[in-house]
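Putative MFS transporter, AGZA family, xanthine/uracil permease: C-alpha cells wanted.
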Amino acid sequence: MTSPPVRSLKHAHPWTEIVAGASSFMATAYIIVVNPSVLSQAGMPFAAVLTATVLVSFFSSLMMGLYARNPILVAPGMGLNAFFTFSVVMGMHVAWPVALGAVFWAGVIFFLLSVFNIRTHIVKAIPLPLRYAITAGIGLFIALIGFVNAGFIVHHPATVIGVGKLNPSLLIFLLGLLVTAALIIRQVKGAVLLGMLVTTLAAFTLGRWWGGPDPVVHWNGLFSAPDFSLLLSLDLVHSLQWALAPVVFAFVFTGMFDGLSTFVALSEAAHLTDENGEPRNIKRSLITDATSTLLAGLFGSSPGTAYIESAVGIEAGGRTGLTAITGALLFLPFLFLSPLLTAIPAIATAPALVLVGAYMIRPVTKIRWQHMDEAIPAFLAMVLIPFTYSITQGIIWGFLSWTVLKVSHGKTKDVPLALWIIDAFALVALTLE
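Answer:
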C-alpha cells in the first residue's frame, strides 16, 4: 500500500500547523513542572531544573522544526529522569554533577551514532510487523497514561488495576473525552485543542465551587524568575570513570530506543514516510534527538527525547516543522510563567491522550496475524509497552522473540545482521535492570 504524499512546510496550511503545535505543547507542558519535581529529589534545585527543562525543550523542539522539519516535540524524557534520580543518584550514590556528566557523554555517543547513520541502519533493521506493533503499543501506552492521569484507572490491591470511583474530577474527564471525541468526529479544526480548553474551563469552574482539600485546579501565582545556576554544572572528568560505564550505556540504550520507537510510531501513524517507507528525515531527527541529550547535560537536566505526546498535534493536523517550531516557542515564556502550568489539570490533557490511542492503533490491521512467527513478537511488543509501562521493555521483548521464533522456524534470513546486534545490546540492557 502506498502512503499518501506528505505535505511540505512550504505547502502546509500555517494555521493548522500552529494549532497542532499548541495542542502538542499543551499535552507536553506537564514536563516543565514534573521534571523538576523528580530531579529535585536528587538534590538539584527545583527552580534551576525547571529553567533547564524549558531551555532543553525550547532549543531541541526548535531544532526539530527548523533542521529536521518534523512535527515532533523534544524535551527531557519521563522514565529517564526517574532513572537519573532514583537509580543513579540515590541508588548508586553518584553525585548529581557526575550524573549530568554521564548524560552529556551519552549525548556525545548518541550524536556519533546518528551522524554516521548507525541509528538509521538500526531503524531499517526493525521488521515492518514490529514497527506496526510498536506504533499500536505506544498508542495504548499513551491512552493508559491518559486514563491514569484522569484517575479513571487506579491501583487495586486485589486486581492490580481497577476503575476509579466516580467523583467531580472524573466527571470532568468524561465530559472532556466526549466533547473532544464529538469535535474530532465532526472534523472541527483544532478539535483536540478546543477539547483541552473546554476541559480546563470546566475544571476551573469545578475547582471554584467544589472546594475541599484537593481542588481540581491549583493556582500558585503568575510569575517566577528563571534560575540559571545549573548551567555547565556537570562534572565531565569524574563521569568518565569505568564504574559509570553501565550508567552511560543505560542512558544510551534507553534513550536510543525510546527515541527510535517514537519516530517510527509517529511516522507510521501519520504517514510521515519517504518513498521507501522509512521515517521522513530520520537522520536529521535522530541528530536532533541526540543533541537534546547533549544539551540536557550542559543545561542541567536528565536526557531529552522525542515525545510521544506529539501525536496529539499530529492528530490535530500537524505534518511539518512549523508544528514543532510553534511548540518550541510556547515553551520559552515559561521561563517566567511556570506557575501558570499548575492551573492546567492533568484531566485537561487526559482526554486527548486517550483519543490519540485510538488514532495510533490503526496499523495493527497491517500485521499478518495468521503468520504466528510474526504475530507473536508483534503481540508481545504491543502489549508489553503499556503493561510494563516501558517502551523499552516492549521493544526489547519484541526484538528478542522475533529473532528466536524466526530462527526456530528456519527463517534465519529474516533476521538481518543489525537486528542480531540490537538483540545483543538488548540482552546487556536486561542485565542492568
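Residues 1-10 have pLDDT under 50 and may be disordered. Residues 281 and 381 are 25 Å apart (CA to CA).

Cheers.
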